[in-house]
Task: inverse folding
């Protein structure tokens, strides 16, 4: 593990092929340098949590992974393809490998739960209505959502249920990668645990590569195979949860002390 | 003994003139930036409107919302505009015994100018504000980002149907406005002021040319596209939560209304 420097690049011929590989990523908004040389590699099938304080650039980093933002310089390699120079059509093709769960779920207000989850299927597949229903139902079952929820609108759901519907929608096309933007923010401890279990279930059940943006230390240590700590636009520590706890980087120590205590 | 370093004097407050110039400059930059953004969006919408998949369901939903939903308010506005215009012009024409010109005057004014302008203003208030608010809310709640992450182009999915609805429906509403306006004018002129029906209709037929109707329809199409683009642009780029959406909607209404009057003059000059 690299404590205060970016983690070393995977060696050639390494057995764990990176699904996401970010190389020397820089992004500035006006005078504000948000990302200043990010290097991060996420192996296929693993869960990487990007931990950091508010305003550290976590969401900006995640939006680069799916091409919602264009970097000033650097590479974003997804499943072997650099998406930075890609045009709209290629980018749309790569985005089909992703599912994304938003902080506030970002469900479409005008659609029912069923229509929300069915939306990606209607856009990208030619399933019959019966097949489509079966697929949506299987994902709602996976998230523990009962049949009566299907006809409800997002405004009628609790925060935790919205998150679950958001995840069902994110995985309905069986993506290779699922991105979670602050999935436990604003949830009570019980629902937070439930969401953590849901993330683990999605990873184990579907074999997806997951990237979780969070400032929730407990949740990060629950779900992460590896944790990257983002501070002032760079990843200052990256490793397994155990390795991160041993980090001597001042920013990491101060951040973790808030949860684990000074000893 | 300690000596105090004299503190650096604060920079002088800018004078009223400097503040006015700065404020004017900022306003000018905002206007130019909006025009540039709307024009760029227009090219994007044109590009995505000819690419598959053609989202007919979304298009018909917007045609219904912008067009069918505005029929009552546009018809009613047209009816009363025609009635009041006939009433006012008949008084003026009565001064030199030319009441027979009430019909053609109302007809020419409605078809060339008022129908398109008023219809577009009604659509701006009724449908444009809803477009801007809906898109703005979708933007600030990340629903637009969600569309993109699902490999659905938001310009094609959300904006193309709205702009096409403006293009197709405002000209139709313009025709409806003219028809309702002429009906109102006929009712007032013939029923209320005693002008003979034959005179009203014959004179109108003599003066009104197809080009006058085309002018109104073309203006309606131009205004429809302009209003839809501005409302979509402002909503699509809204930020800052509920307050930002409210501000974007206010700006969209002002900019749309201004664009209608400015484009009315430009199209009028081009067509004459």
Result:
């Amino acid at each position: 593990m690299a404590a205060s420097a970016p983690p070393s690049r995977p060696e050639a011929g390494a057995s764990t092929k990176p699904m996401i590989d970010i190389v020397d990523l820089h992004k500035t908004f006006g005078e504000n340098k948000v990302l200043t040389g990010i290097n991060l590699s996420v192996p296929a099938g693993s869960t990487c949590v990007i931990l950091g304080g508010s305003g550290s650039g976590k969401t900006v980093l995640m939006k680069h992974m799916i091409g919602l933002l264009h970097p000033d310089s650097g590479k974003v390699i997804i499943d072997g393809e650099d998406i930075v120079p890609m045009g709209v059509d290629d980018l749309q093709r790569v985005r089909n490998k992703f599912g994304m769960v938003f902080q506030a779920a970002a469900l479409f207000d005008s659609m029912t739960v069923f229509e929300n989850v069915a939306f990606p299927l209607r856009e990208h597949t030619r399933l019959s209505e019966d097949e489509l229903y079966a697929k949506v139902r299987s994902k709602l079952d996976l998230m523990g959502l009962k049949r009566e929820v299907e006809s409800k609108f997002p405004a009628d759901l609790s925060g935790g249920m919205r998150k679950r519907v958001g995840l069902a929608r994110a995985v309905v096309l069986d993506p290779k990668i699922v991105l979670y933007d602050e999935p436990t923010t604003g949830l009570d401890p019980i629902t937070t645990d439930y969401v953590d279990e849901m993330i683990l279930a999605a990873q184990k059940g579907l074999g997806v590569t997951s990237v979780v943006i969070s400032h929730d230390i407990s949740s990060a240590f629950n779900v992460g195979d590896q944790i990257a700590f983002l501070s002032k636009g760079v990843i200052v520590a990256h490793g397994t949860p155990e390795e991160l706890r041993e980090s001597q980087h001042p920013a990491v120590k101060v951040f973790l002390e808030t949860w684990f205590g000074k000893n | 003994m300690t000596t105090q370093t004299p503190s650096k004097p604060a920079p002088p407050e800018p004078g009223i003139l400097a503040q006015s110039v700065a404020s004017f400059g900022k306003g000018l930059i905002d206007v130019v930036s909006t025009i540039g953004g709307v024009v760029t969006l227009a090219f994007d919408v044109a590009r995505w409107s000819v690419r598959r998949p053609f989202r007919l369901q979304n298009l018909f939903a917007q045609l219904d919302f912008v067009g069918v939903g505005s029929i009552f308010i546009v018809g009613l506005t047209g009816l009363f505009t025609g009635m009041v215009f006939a009433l006012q012009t008949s008084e003026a024409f009565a001064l030199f015994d030319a009441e027979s010109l009430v019909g053609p005057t109302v007809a020419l004014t409605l078809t060339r100018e008022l129908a398109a302008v008023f219809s577009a203003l009604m659509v701006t208030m009724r449908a444009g504000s809803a477009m801007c608010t809906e898109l703005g809310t979708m933007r600030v709640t990340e629903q637009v980002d969600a569309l993109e992450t699902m490999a659905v182009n938001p310009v094609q999915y959300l904006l193309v149907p709205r702009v096409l609805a403006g293009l197709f429906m405002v000209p139709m509403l313009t025709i409806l406005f003219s028809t309702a306006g002429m009906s109102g004018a006929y009712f007032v002129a013939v029923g209320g002021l005693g002008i003979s029906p034959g005179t009203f209709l014959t004179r109108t037929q003599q003066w009104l040319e197809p080009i006058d109707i085309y002018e109104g329809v073309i203006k309606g199409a131009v205004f429809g596209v302009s209003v839809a683009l501005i409302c979509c642009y402002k909503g699509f780029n809204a930020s800052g939560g509920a307050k930002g959406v409210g501000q974007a909607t206010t700006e969209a209404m002002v900019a749309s209304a201004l664009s209608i009057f400015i484009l009315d003059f430009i199209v009028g000059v081009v067509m004459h």
